[in-house]
Amino acid sequence: MKKGKFITLEGMDGAGKSTHIPTIVALLQARGLETVSTREPGGTALGEQLRTLLLHEPMHAETETLLMFAARREHIANVIEPALARGAYVLSDRFTDATYAYQCGAKGVAPDKIKQLEIWVQGDLRPDATLLFDVPVEISLKRLANAREPDKFEREDAQFFEKLRQAYLQRAAENPERFHIINANQSLENVKKLVENIISTL
Ligand SMILES: Nc1ncnc2c1ncn2[C@@H]1O[C@H](COP(=O)(O)OP(=O)(O)OP(=O)(O)O)[C@@H](O)[C@H]1O
Ligand SMILES: [Mg+2]
Question: Over the stretch 37-95, which tens digit does the pLDDT of each residue have?
């Protein structure tokens, strides 16, 4: 039975998700909570191997969706559910909203197909809270250009990223009870303050 809390971080490549994870972990640990910090695709040994394939091998968008959920099944069974059962706060750098945004919103996989996989793989597991780091596409691209060599997704064009951003905002509009939209187009200090305010309510 679930006792902990499941918190996910979402947003485009370069929005700032990974940057703020150490802050969130520190805030939760200061409250005496056990935290488990993980990511998707990945989070398990098999999941990380699937991540390498997903980020670097060209494949059909539905193959991508199926592999994402295969990795997710492993992640839930081996990491997320056991941690939640012992009362930990689980922090995942991306989860199923990313599948809706990338594979459905940006690549055109039918939302019903993702919904079926979500129900199959997750049962009734859904995030308790989702922090959506929202930035304009040109900011995201600029940050990525400075940060690192692009993977398969990061080499997509601006139109792809615009669809992605809109899909994320639509997910947030459809699930207002768990989404917190963060305007991440501001200084790191200001974004950090917004993150701290949200985490203090969870
Ligand atoms: N508010 C900000 N202002 C300026 N630069 C930022 C800000 N937030 C993050 N960055 C920088 O942008 C780059 C990308 O940030 P980060 O890796 O946290 O993004 P991400 O959302 O985790 O991306 P990905 O989905 O690709 O992993 C990093 O170099 C980071 O230092
Ligand atoms: Mg990241």
Answer: 999 999 999 999 999 999 999 999 999 999 999 999 999 999 999 999 999 999 999 99
> Using a 6 Å cutoff on CB, does residue 51 contact ligand 1?
no
Closest C-alpha to 108, from 67, 62, 70: 62
The CATH number assigned to the domain holding 84 equals: 3.40.50.300
Going from the Cα of 143 to the center of ligand 1, the distance in angstroms, rounded, reads 6
Centre of ligand 2 from the C-alpha of residue 93, in Å: 7
Q: Provide the number of structural domains found in the chain.
A: 1
d(CA 97, CA 52): 20
Alpha-carbon distance values, 95 to 43, 146, 189, 195 (Å)? 11, 25, 25, 18
